[in-house]
């Protein structure tokens, strides 16, 4: 039966006839049915319950396709395996940092491993050959250290690889400013020949130093060399390079003309609340500085410390100084006087406004603000000193009454020391506390020993106070740091345990070795001076045990030329003696310190030539 042209089989046959060879063997028509599957001739049918017959033609047409598919699957599998191998962990395989293998590790594992190694690297000194000179610097002194987290991040980004190794440089932290300062300190004098500009003032006249090219240290290249060499333990070579200055002569001249000269041409009025004060040209010249950056370029700035020192009297018109908490004696007992905060001009804020008006012509005015400033010693700090009881006291006596020059000197120095506080661990210096004892500070001429001879001298009598203070510190159990007994023995002082003073070569110093503060209280009468130490009692007792006097020598008679410098004396014998300071605490002796001194015989001075 012939198929209708509209049937699927007819269409298939028609298509087959167009593509088939001209001569074909007769074939049976295929039954009418659905279109054949793709890749199967339209006249072939594929039963649903079995595979197609394995004819020779079928084998030839299917096997290459199956083999190709297998190869693709194998390649995909191999690629996937290789990818998994290469990307195992957070760090790509084959990654190393200075020989430390980090590949295929997690970030945590890599960080732990690298940190252990970096701890040893950070202890490695920095070796530098700077301008031909070999030096070694502690790594920490210039901020050198391996940044472990940053290095691990760099290792994680180093790229995937299947074979081979990749060396990742460690990330190195470095304080380049400290490095530059350390390297410059090693340079021989005169090696840096580049000249940077400078602008200063002589009085109110600008003084200029112009720039010129020459050899200099290059911070950037030095830092790069150090970062590369130090982690590997190598020597970083730093050489000087030829550099041109960052500023030209014309730029410096313009800065002088536009800022320096007009700045000191007139005063600046500063209004602070209801008050005003003036910054004079002289004060402005002290406070105005031209700072150089790392490249040597100048810029104007206000140095608040220098300006405050130069304008102290003017600032005092609007400022209130802070009052520190202190310990005083009231009715025979220590009392804390509370601190009071002060108010000072905020020169940090004032500086920017001042710079803004300095280039302008007069009149010039700005507004300042006050800021609170705390006292150096707070109430709590004063209370923490533990000053609550008298722990020692000592008195010496003098003649002549309160009006004699010698007595006046004793009273003056006693007042200067009264109320001084020595904190735990501090060393008290009598010369440092009072300064030079001269006429300007209220001292008068009185007998002093100069080169073994009694002569009038400014401040005579201060040694009696010195001896009194020394004994008060001695019996408080404080540490003797510096003292020197007199060359002659004076009966008004305890032998050996006494001290003279002479500014600036002879001083009295003692250290507070107790855990409490020491308040020095002084008092004078017309015939005595007393020094007491107030604190918290630490020792049971402090006593002196004397040895016998020995090597006693008689005083000679010395005739001196009569005149205002000649002072007579009856003379005293010389001798050597030992004294032991015995300190007891908690019922037992804890210290026995030996003091020994040799006194020269004091001559019997006679004014006028000896009669023949």
Automatic annotation (TrEMBL):
Q: What residues form the membrane-spanning segments? A: 65-86
> YoaR-like putative peptidoglycan binding domain location, by residue?
261-358
Query: Quick one: where's region Disordered?
Result: 1-60
Keywords assigned by UniProt, alphabetized: Membrane, Transmembrane, Transmembrane helix
Compositional bias (Polar residues) at which positions?
Answer: 16-30
PANTHER family given for it?
Answer: EXPORTED PROTEIN, EXPORTED PROTEIN-RELATED
Protein name as annotated = Vanomycin resistance protein VanB
What species is this protein from?
Paractinoplanes deccanensis
């Amino acid at each position: 039966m012939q198929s209708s042209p509209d049937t699927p089989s007819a269409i298939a046959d028609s298509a087959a006839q167009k593509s088939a060879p001209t001569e074909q063997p007769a074939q049976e028509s295929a039954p009418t049915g659905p279109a054949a599957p793709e890749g199967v001739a339209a006249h072939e049918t594929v039963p649903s319950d079995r595979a197609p017959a394995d004819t020779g033609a079928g084998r030839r047409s299917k096997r290459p396709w199956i083999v190709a598919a297998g190869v693709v699957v194998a390649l995909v599998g191999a690629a996937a395996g290789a990818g998994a191998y290469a990307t195992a962990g957070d760090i790509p395989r084959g990654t190393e940092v200075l020989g430390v293998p980090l590949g295929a590790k997690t970030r945590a594992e890599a960080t732990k491993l690298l940190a252990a190694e970096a701890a040893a690297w950070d202890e490695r000194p920095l070796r530098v050959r700077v301008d031909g000179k070999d030096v070694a610097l502690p790594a920490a002194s210039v901020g050198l250290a391996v940044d472990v987290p940053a290095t691990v991040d760099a290792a994680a980004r180093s790229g995937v690889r299947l074979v081979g190794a990749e060396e990742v440089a460690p990330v190195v932290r470095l304080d380049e400013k400290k490095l530059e300062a350390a390297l410059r300190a090693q340079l021989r004098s005169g090696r840096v020949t580049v000249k940077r500009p400078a602008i200063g003032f002589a009085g109110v006249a600008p003084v200029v130093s112009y720039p010129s090219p020459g050899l200099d240290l290059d911070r950037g290249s030095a830092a790069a060399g150090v970062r590369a060499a130090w982690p590997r333990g190598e020597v970083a070579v730093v050489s000087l390079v030829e550099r041109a200055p960052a500023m030209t002569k014309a730029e410096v001249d313009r800065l002088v003309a536009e800022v320096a000269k007009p700045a000191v041409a007139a005063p600046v009025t500063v209004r602070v609340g209801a008050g005003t004060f003036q910054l004079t040209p002289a004060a402005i010249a002290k406070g105005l500085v031209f700072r150089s950056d790392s490249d040597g370029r100048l810029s104007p700035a206000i140095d608040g410390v220098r300006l405050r020192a130069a304008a102290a009297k003017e600032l005092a018109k609007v400022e209130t100084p802070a009052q520190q908490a202190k310990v005083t004696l009231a009715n025979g007992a220590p009392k804390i006087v509370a601190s009071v905060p002060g108010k000072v001009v905020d020169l940090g804020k004032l500086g920017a406004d001042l710079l803004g008006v300095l280039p302008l012509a007069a009149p010039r005015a700005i507004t300042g603000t006050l800021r609170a400033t705390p006292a150096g010693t707070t109430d709590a700090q004063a209370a923490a000193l533990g000053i609550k009881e008298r722990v020692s006291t000592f008195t010496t006596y003098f003649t002549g009454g309160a009006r004699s020059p010698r007595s006046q000197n004793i009273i003056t120095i006693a007042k200067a020391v009264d109320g001084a506080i020595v904190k735990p661990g501090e060393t008290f210096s009598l010369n440092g506390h009072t300064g030079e004892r001269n006429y300007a500070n209220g001292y008068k001429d009185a007998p002093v020993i100069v080169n073994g001879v009694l002569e009038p001298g400014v401040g005579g009598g201060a040694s009696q106070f010195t001896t009194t203070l020394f004994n008060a510190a001695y019996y408080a159990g404080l540490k003797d740091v510096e003292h020197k007994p007199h060359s002659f023995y004076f009966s008004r002082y305890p032998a050996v345990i006494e001290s003279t003073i002479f500014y600036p070569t002879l001083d009295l110093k003692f250290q507070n070795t107790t855990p409490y503060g020491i308040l020095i209280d002084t008092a004078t009468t017309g015939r005595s001076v007393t020094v007491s130490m107030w604190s918290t009692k630490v020792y049971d007792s402090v006593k002196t045990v004397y040895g016998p006097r020995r090597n006693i020598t008689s005083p000679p008679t010395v005739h001196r030329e009569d005149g205002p410098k000649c002072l007579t004396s009856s003379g005293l014998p010389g001798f050597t003696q030992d004294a032991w300071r015995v300190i007891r605490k908690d019922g037992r002796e804890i210290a026995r310190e030996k003091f020994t001194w040799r006194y020269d015989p004091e001559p019997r001075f006679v004014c006028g030539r000896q009669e023949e």
